[in-house]
Amino acid sequence: MSRLLLIGPPGAGKGTQAAKLAEAYGIPAISTGDIFRYNVKNETELGKLAKSFMDRGEYVPDSVTNDLVRDRLSHEDAKSGFLLDGYPRTADQVGELDNILEADGLALDAVIQLTADTDEVVRRLLNRAIEQGRADDTEEVIRRRLEVYEAETAPLISVYAARGLVIMVDGLGAIEEVTARIIEALDARTSAN
Ligand code: ADP
């Protein structure tokens, strides 16, 4: 398993699991949210642009995000595989990722759908607001992020399901338990193929 996507609502634990899976499979975890936050912190041009969207819980425009991912995937460490966390999030981004991979004759191995109910994700995000002080973890912005996720990103799961790529994993429980669940599901898939 070397070309993986992680999809799920804000607060499902994608970032935490992405780090664990990247280690387990020896591939880089690439989080568009982390890359944007790094740029915001360093006040780059990209950061200034991204911040205006992120602070409102809106998605950064596709053209900007697509260029960023295209560039990141061209780096040497992503040649033998990657785990994308938080990309693609729109239908346009799905098309772009297909183009990027097809140009090199590559394809995705699996899409991990991490589930968590709304009450739990809101609770986690409000808790993270206290612990990490992320600018987009206020109650109002959290609500908007969840709406945008439902409208733009949740429908993408059926696109990948139609390709037979989706494995659905319950994101509730201890971090290690969830990681073990994902690895088990990915391994079951590999041996079935
Ligand atoms: P979460 O999934 O918990 O909301 P992320 O760290 O993945 O957090 O993303 C934070 C913000 O970064 C998003 O709300 C959005 O503004 C921006 N962002 C991240 N990934 C994308 C993407 N693929 N397309 C557009 N915007 C993105």
Task: Describe this protein's structure.
It contains 9 helices and 5 strands; from the N terminus they run E-H-E-H-H-H-E-H-E-H-H-H-E-H. With 193 residues, it is an alpha/beta fold. A 5-stranded parallel beta sheet has the order 2-3-1-4-5, with helices on both faces. Helix 2 crosses helix 3 (45-54). The longest helix has 18 residues, at 175-192. It is globular. The termini are close together. The mean pLDDT is 96. The structure holds adenosine-5'-diphosphate. Adenosine-5'-diphosphate (ADP) binds next to helix 2 and helix 3.
Based on secondary structure, the structural category is alpha/beta
Got a strand count? 5
pLDDT averaged residue by residue? 96
**What small molecules accompany the polymer chains?**
adenosine-5'-diphosphate
| Residue share in β-strands | 5-15%
H/E element sequence: EHEHHHEHEHHHEH
Summarize the amount of helix as a percent range: 55-70%
The general outline is globular
Sheet with the most strands?
5 strands, parallel
Q: Please give the radius of gyration in angstroms.
A: 16 Å
Point out poorly predicted stretches. none
The main sheet orders its strands as 2-3-1-4-5
Distance between the termini: 11 Å
Number of helices: 9
